[in-house]
Design goal:
- The complex is a heterodimer of chains A (192) and B (590).
- With 192 residues, chain A is mainly alpha-helical.
- Among the domains of chain A are: 32-97, Electron transport complex subunit B, putative Fe-S cluster (3-methyladenine DNA Glycosylase II, Chain A, domain 3, Orthogonal Bundle); 102-164, Alpha-Beta Plaits, CATH 3.30.70.
- Chain A has helices at residues 2-25, 32-40, 54-62, 75-86, 118-122, and strands at residues 104-108, 128-129, 137-138, 158-162.
- In chain A, strands 1-4 form a two-stranded antiparallel sheet. A two-stranded antiparallel ribbon of chain A has the order 2-3.
- The longest helix of chain A is centred in the first third of the chain and has 24 residues, at 2-25.
- Chain A starts with a helix and ends in a 30-residue tail after the last strand.
- With 590 residues, chain B is an alpha/beta fold.
- Among the domains of chain B are: 1-30 and 140-297, NADH-ubiquinone oxidoreductase 51kDa subunit (Rossmann fold); 379-499, Orthogonal Bundle (Fumarate Reductase Iron-sulfur Protein, Chain B, domain 2), CATH 1.10.1060.
- Helices cover 42% and strands 15% of the residues of chain B.
- Chain B has helices spanning 4-12, 138-145, 160-164, 188-195, 197-211, 225-237, 256-264, 284-296, 325-331, 389-393, 400-408, 412-417, 428-432, 439-497, 502-529, 540-577, 579-588; strands spanning 16-17, 41-42, 48-52, 62-63, 70-71, 76-79, 88-89, 94-103, 111-119, 174-179, 215-221, 243-247, 279-283, 302-309, 315-320, 341-344, 351-352, 366-370.
- Chain B has a six-stranded mixed β-sheet, with helices on one face. In chain B, strands 1-12-11-10-13 form a five-stranded parallel β-sheet, with helices on both faces.
- In chain B, strand 16 and strand 17 (351-352) form a beta hairpin.
- The radius of gyration of chain B is 35 Å and the shape is globular.
- Chain B starts with a helix and ends with a helix.
- Classes of the chains: A mainly alpha (192), B alpha/beta (590).
- The A-B interface holds A 38, 41-45, 53-55, 124-127, 142, 144, 165-175, 177, 180 and B 54, 104, 106-108, 110, 112, 380-381, 410, 438, 441-442, 444-445, 447-449, 451-452, 455-456, 459-464, 466-470.
Chain lengths: 192, 590
């Protein structure tokens, strides 16, 4: 009887120590759910969702403060991926936050730019290059197309230009089977 | 035509037939005899050469020439940039008249950057430097190859110098020479092997030297007896051992992985490269290009192109890169009536040219003038009946019917799980499909969709990193500012307490003042030396005008300095009295 109690106490102590040690040793930094949500978000950092960037939006989704359908750049596919991850029902994109647009990059009209640096401060990914009273330019490959630089520009010299299709980014189209023209004499009531 | 003796000779030859058979595959009508009746003919130099920068897989090369420059044949026009890239050379002598976007032979039908050369007809070569490659180390030869512009000539156009590189971790023991040419209609490799077998073997010797390989196996389909004989004879004369093996005619035995399996019995795992299992495969035309580059110094400027289909005289031509397709069509006697399309590549894997006003590129192995009677328009696609004929025909043993299902529903992730990227787009599945479903089109769609997704993911990762760095930077700057403010608050207290120290401050200020003065003097001297650069070529009238303006400016300057002389002196005396406070002011501005 006494042996059994000692064995149990011993086991409890040993396992307790093991668990305590592993909770310190294998501690997970940060919230893995936030990171997984953040990985799905398109990282445009545009703030259309109402949060100051993708990470804050991911945090808000994880804590249940925000809905999954507030990210227009992520589009329908993004909402589906989030619904899959979180195990919730899919919802159509909330158009209050904007409509999905084709990928664009900001272009500064360098003749008009006065070098005020306001757009540089607005750019969430440091994709605008320039200095005070010197011409600015957009590093096109780093631009996420968030449009945050447009509003602060005092001379309205920034425009969004959709990314052009080139042989490099061209995609094969979804196969579409052409509708055959119906022959003249069978035009009426044909089920083609 | 065959003489009886020749046939007997062919039968007598000790030909090694492969034991391994292709899994799946199809055997469409070959249509190869049309274009093999006549020897290879060189196409005359065209009036204009249009060289797209995008002629290979990988990064675009960097442009080296300017519009208006005279170039010689073989001159480097654009150099390889990045590890996977190939150089572009002038294919004849002439003048660069434009660097512009024009149509290229690409399935997208989109224009891309091209160098346009007006040929002068002299066809004058640059100084060629043949190389004694036997004396050189493989590493230096590979470095040289970056300048050669040689890419895989089988149609894939992968830069050859990348394929020749070996790592100590995966040494290559066997070289496979691809002379299978399995796709119908295409005969450029066949004719090349018949006519230039010795040169191919010489190219093989170079590849063998670079890769340090002992075994060489040439694989040829059994529908090319003449090429087989020529290659066997040339191989017998070589000073190293070369095996020539025959594979059964079956499409797509010419795919590198399939041919490797047919010739060696080794199956390259789907997630590995052939070099990981000690094998590398080169097309015969690529080896010939190697020979011409190292033994004659000639970079890649031309290739053999099969012009066939509904033209008057189907034939193989040696064509300079950049030659307009229209020249090629005209040389073959023009298109017959009813031709409504031109296909680049074979009928199985090729694509419709967006226009005939595109140039021949490094990847143009075959042009087929197509007419509805040759390739009838695809019949209406019917629903998939899941007969799995496509699975039987698939040479890489995928489940095409499943892939079709996922691609159609745009379920890209699931398609990936079913090894979408192992699909070689050979078209066997579409060929055998009783419902006429354009299966390969679905896979191509799914593949490019998957690639676009991957790119977006990569871009998102970069954006996330940059955003995080920016937030960190803003945070750091805020902290630094707070720290400075704290220090300054401390500092101003110190200066008010330590009044006696003001004397040393004045001395500091004086030395600072001297330094500023010296800097101003230096700037003035520099300014005096400077001359405007853009007026040298100006007409005399403009020069006179400039001189007049300069004189006026000088006068105005003098007037200003005279009127300011007195107040400036007063200011200077004031300045001396309050150096400490001005220091504090300038610190505030930070």
């Amino acid at each position: 009887m006494l042996t059994a109690i000692w064995v149990m106490i011993g086991l409890a102590l040993a396992l307790g120590l093991l668990l305590g040690y592993s909770s310190v040793k294998f501690k997970v930094e940060g919230d893995p759910l936030v990171d997984r949500i953040d990985a799905i978000l398109p990282q445009t950092q545009c703030g259309q969702c109402g949060f100051p960037g993708c990470k804050p939006y991911a945090t808000a989704i994880a804590s249940g403060e925000a809905d999954i359908n507030q990210c227009p750049p992520g589009g329908d596919a993004g909402v589906r991926a989030l619904a899959d991850l979180l195990g919730v029902e899919y919802k159509p994109l909330n158009t209050e936050h904007g409509e999905p647009k084709p990928k664009s990059v900001a272009v500064i009209d360098e003749n008009v730019c006065i070098g005020c640096t306001l757009c540089i401060q607005a750019c969430p990914v440091d994709a605008i290059l320039g200095a005070a009273k010197h011409m600015h330019t957009v590093i096109a490959s780093e631009c996420t197309g968030c449009e945050l630089c447009i509003a602060p520009c005092p001379v309205d010299c920034i425009t969004m230009e959709p990314v052009k299709e080139s042989p490099d980014n061209w995609k094969w189209r979804y196969p579409v089977i052409r509708i055959q023209p119906v022959a003249e004499h069978t035009t009426t009531n044909s089920i083609h | 035509m065959f003489s009886l003796n020749r046939i007997v000779d062919l039968i007598k030859q000790p030909v090694h037939r492969t034991e391994v058979h292709l899994r799946g595959g199809v055997h469409p009508d070959e249509h190869k005899h049309e274009s093999t009746q006549q020897p290879i003919m060189s196409l005359p130099i065209p009036h204009q050469i249009v060289l797209p920068l995008r002629q290979h897989v990988g990064h675009l090369p960097k442009l080296l020439v300017k519009v208006g420059e005279r170039v010689k044949k073989g001159q480097l026009l654009a150099e390889a940039e990045g590890s996977i890239s190939a150089a572009i050379h002038a294919t004849t002598s002439g003048t660069v008249i434009a660097v512009q976007d024009s149509l290229i032979p690409h399935p997208s039908g989109l224009p891309d950057q091209c160098i346009v050369i007006a040929a002068d007809g002299l066809d004058e070569w640059v100084d060629l430097h043949p190389m004694d490659w036997r004396q050189q180390s493989p590493a230096s030869l590979i470095e040289h190859l970056r300048l050669s512009g040689i890419v895989g000539m089988g149609g894939a156009a992968f830069p050859t110098q990348v394929k020749l590189r070996t790592t100590p971790k995966s040494p290559v023991h066997t070289l496979i020479v691809n002379g299978a040419e399995c796709e119908p209609y295409i005969t450029c490799d066949d004719m090349l092997m018949r006519e230039r077998a010795t040169q191919i073997i010489q190219g093989l010797a170079i590849a063998r030297h670079i890769m340090g390989v002992e075994n060489c196996i040439i694989g040829i389909e059994d529908n090319k007896p003449e090429a087989l004989q020529a290659m066997t004879e040339a191989a017998a004369k070589a000073d190293f051992a070369v095996q020539v093996k025959v594979v059964a005619t079956m499409y797509p035995s010419g795919d590198a992985r399939q041919l490797i399996r047919l010739l060696t019995g080794i199956e390259v795992p789907n997630d590995k490269r052939s070099t990981d299992v000690g094998l590398q495969c080169f097309n015969v035309a690529t080896l010939l290009a190697l020979h011409r580059y190292f033994d004659f110094g000639e970079p890649a400027v031309s290739r053999i192109v099969t012009m066939t289909g509904r033209v008057n005289e189907p034939r193989n031509y040696e064509v300079l890169f950049g030659t307009p397709m229209t020249d090629l069509i005209a040389a073959s006697g023009g298109a017959l009536s009813g031709v409504d399309d031109y296909i680049m590549g074979g009928p199985m894997m090729g694509f419709s040219l967006p226009s005939i006003h595109v140039p021949v590129t490094k990847a143009s192995n075959c042009i087929i003038a197509s007419a509805p009677d040759l390739f009838p328009p695809a019949a209406e696609a019917m629903p998939c009946i899941r007969c799995a004929r496509c699975a039987d025909a698939c040479p890489v043993q995928l489940q095409p019917q499943e892939l079709y299902w996922f691609a159609k529903s745009e379920n890209i992730e699931k398609a990936r799980e079913y090894h979408l990227f192992d699909c070689i787009e050979c078209g066997c599945c579409s060929y055998v499909c009783p419902s006429n479903i354009p299966l390969v089109q679905y896979y191509r769609f799914a593949k490019s969709e998957a690639i676009a997704q991957d790119r977006a993911k990569e871009a998102a990762n970069v954006a996330r990193e940059r955003n995080e760095f920016r937030l960190m930077r803003i945070d750091r700057e805020k902290q630094e500012r707070a720290q400075r403010h704290a220090q300054k608050a401390l500092g101003s207290k110190d200066s008010s307490e330590q009044a006696p120290a003001a004397a040393t401050n004045t001395e500091d200020a004086a030395s600072k003042q001297a330094a500023i003065q010296a800097a101003i003097e230096r700037a003035k001297a520099q300014k005096a030396q400077m001359k405007p650069k853009n007026v040298e070529d100006a007409p005399t009238q403009v020069k006179a005008e400039i001189a007049e303006i300069d004189a006026r400016r000088e006068q105005a300057k003098q007037a200003v300095t005279q009127s300011q002389a007195q107040p400036a002196a007063q200011q200077a005396s004031l300045f001396d009295q309050a150096p400490a406070s001005s220091d504090a002011n300038s610190a505030d501005k930070d």
